[in-house]
Structures are given as C-alpha cells and as structure tokens.
C-alpha cells in the first residue's frame, strides 16, 4: 500500500505549534500596538492549548516545545498588557487630580 493512502501513518501536526509560537513572538514584540497584540496573544494561547492537548496521544510529541513557548508568550503578553493598562489608568487618574 502506498504511503499517501496509509491511515496508520502518524500525522505531523506541527503547524499549530508553529502558529502558536509565531503569534506569541509577534504579540510580545508588538506590545505597544494593543489592537494587534491582544488578538495575537489570544491566538497563541488557543493554538498552544490545542496543540498540547493533541500531543497527549501522539507518541512522538513533535512540536510540544513550540506550543508551550507560544502559550507562555501569549500569557506573558496578556499579563503585560494588563499591567501597562493599570499603570496608564493610574497615571491618568493622578494627572486629573493635579488639575
């Protein structure tokens, strides 16, 4: 039987892991552009979570490291956005009290 039609051949699902890592990296690099950074961070978290769950049954565990990296970068990006938003709100509040 040919390799193309073999249903028992392991499937290479590294695409979601690569997408997760790329979205996480671009999300953290574009931290100042909030409208771009938030969706990329969310996509990194979603793709990383899907890939980690898909790798539970895969004996090769290909792409697991990239999926974890994307997941962590997405979480860090969301955390930094929240912290920076709180600092901006606090600064605006203090500035309004001075006037």
Order of helices and strands: HHH
Tell me the major beta sheet: none
The average pLDDT value, as a whole number, equals: 86
Sheet/helix structural class:
mainly alpha
| Beta fraction | under 5%
**How far apart, in Å, are the first and last alpha carbons?**
80 Å
Low-confidence segments = none
How many strands? 0
Give the helix proportion (percent range): over 70%
Helix tally? Answer: 3
- The count of domains is 1
Task: Using the alpha-carbon principal axes, give the shape.
Answer: rod-shaped
Radius of gyration: 19 Å
Protein name: DUF4190 domain-containing protein
Transmembrane segments: 16-47, 68-93
InterPro entries: DUF4190
Keywords: Membrane, Transmembrane, Transmembrane helix
What does this structure look like?
By secondary structure, the chain is mainly α. It has one domain (15-98). 73% of the residues lie in helices and 0% in strands. The radius of gyration is 19 Å and the shape is rod-shaped. The model has no long low-confidence stretch (mean pLDDT 86). Keywords: Membrane, Transmembrane, Transmembrane helix.
Which labels suit this protein?
mainly alpha; 99 residues; 3 helices; rod-shaped
Brief summary of the model shown:
The chain is mainly alpha-helical and 99 residues long. It has one domain (15-98). The chain contains three helices and no strands.
């Amino acid at each position: 039987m040919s390799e193309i039609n073999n249903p028992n051949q392991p499937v290479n699902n590294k695409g979601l892991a690569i997408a997760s890592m790329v979205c996480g990296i671009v999300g953290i690099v574009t931290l100042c552009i909030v409208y771009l950074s938030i969706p990329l961070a969310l996509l990194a978290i979603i793709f990383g979570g899907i890939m980690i769950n898909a790798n539970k049954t895969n004996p090769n565990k290909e792409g697991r490291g990239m999926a974890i990296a994307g997941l962590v970068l997405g979480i860090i990006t969301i955390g930094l956005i929240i912290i920076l938003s709180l600092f901006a709100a606090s600064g605006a509040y203090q500035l309004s009290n001075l006037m």
